[in-house]
Amino acid sequence: MRNALIVATCAIALTLGSAPGAGALAPFTGVGDAALADAARPILERAPHDQAGVAYIDSTGVRYAYFGATEDSEYEIGSITKTFTAELFADAVARGEVREDTKVGELLPVAGTPVADVSLVELAAHTSGLPQFPIAPNMVLGGIQWQLEGKNPFTFDREELLAHARCAPLLTRGAFGYSTLGYALLGEAVAAAAHTDYTTLLRERIVEPLGMSDTWLPLTAADLPPDASTGFNEQGRPADAWPIDAYSPAGGLRSTVPDLTRYARALLDGSAPGADAMTPRWDRLFGVRSAMSWAVIPRDGRQYTVHSGGTGGFQSVIVLDREAGRALVIATNRLAGLEIGAFDLLKALDG
User: Are β-strands 52-58 and 61-67 bridged in parallel, bridged antiparallel, or unpaired?
Assistant: First the structure.
């Protein structure tokens, strides 16, 4: 979620040096599988995380490894939330609540603006032409505050989200263009079709059915307990938590490694509501194909279904090897890339 913010404020960010913060990876806690910990450590140490949790799923079951963390450690999972929103959309189509070609303007009050004519499947496929983030002064200011002070840049309520949507141009409609704004609208639209709010829809249709009791969606800072976990940004500075209000369908979930493992297993066996959202449907560059939110990436002779998530102070990734019935979950408390490391860890676990 944060890439466009980095670009928008890079001149300021370049003036900032590193500060004390997340340091060397903490020792393996002894909770979980020592062999998995041995394989994961050198890969996780490529970036300075001090807390991390890893889960590996295959035909024999699940193995865990924790570094400076426990099974109860909570992480912001950022844009992995988009996969839940895509599945809610696919599930709503199956229920007959919406069609793939239902227009945004049929469900949300955006009449007379370009986005009103955008279909829900365009939002789900990232082909709506909407920008990654709103082109709005309050978004730019939020990005600057994030870089300078570690502040949460996403504090926009539903009316502000709709205002962003009404003003948004469709810059590259028909071509792939990753859009957090688009996924926030998709979540709002699907919830509107079900005559409820996004938080309730997510809880009732995915979180509770899958037994994800430690996965939840704070909307504002007031929803967070005093001891809510926080992480570190790319410079190693403490970062604010990111409860992101109306943008929550695009990146607001908090979860644990065991809960993400429940989610990954349900995706692998097809029992997750809306699991059809993982079906690749659109071609991109270099052999990559897109599903609804997920990317399907060829690597090392396999087809990996992947989504990562980053907030101001956390990074996570889910990689599914659907053909082999394998999955990898990694969550850390510092914003630093994990995708390549996840592929390398899967290759190492292949033996």
Answer: antiparallel
* DSSP structure string for 16-83: ----S-S-SPPPEEEEE-HHHHHHHHHHHTTTT-S-EEEEEEETTEEEEEEES--TT--EE-GGGHHH
Whole-model pTM: value is: 0.92
Whether 81 maps to a domain, the answer reads: yes
| Domain encompassing residue 200 | 24-350
**How many domains does the chain contain in total?**
1
- For position 343, which CATH number holds? 3.40.710.10
Reference 80, options 253, 208, 229; nearest CA is: 253
Contacts of 220 (CB under 8 A, 6+ apart): 155, 243, 245
3-state SS class at 99 = coil
For the stretch 102-128, pLDDT in tens is: 999 999 999 999 999 999 999 999 999
pLDDT greater than 60 at residue 7: no
Query: 6 in a domain, yes or no?
Result: no
158 residue type, one letter: R
Whether residue 206 lies inside any domain: the answer is yes
Distance, CA of 277 to CA of 83 (rounded, Å): 8
Structure token pair of residue 244: 């992101």
Q: What is the DSSP pairing of strand 315-321 with strand 254-255?
A: unpaired
Structure tokens at 192: 């509107």
What is the full DSSP assignment across 276-330? GGGS--EE-GGG-EE-SS-EEEEETTEEEEEEEEE-SS-EEEEEEETTTTEEEEE
In this structure, which long-range contacts are made by residues 291-295, counting pairs with CB atoms below 8 Å and at least 24 apart in sequence? 291/86, 292/86, 292/87, 292/89, 292/90, 292/121, 292/124, 292/125, 293/82, 293/83, 293/85, 293/86, 293/124, 293/126, 293/183, 294/83, 294/86
Note whether residue 83 is domain-resident: yes
Cβ-count burial of 91 within 10 angstroms (0-12 exposed, 13-18 middle, 19+ buried)?
Answer: buried
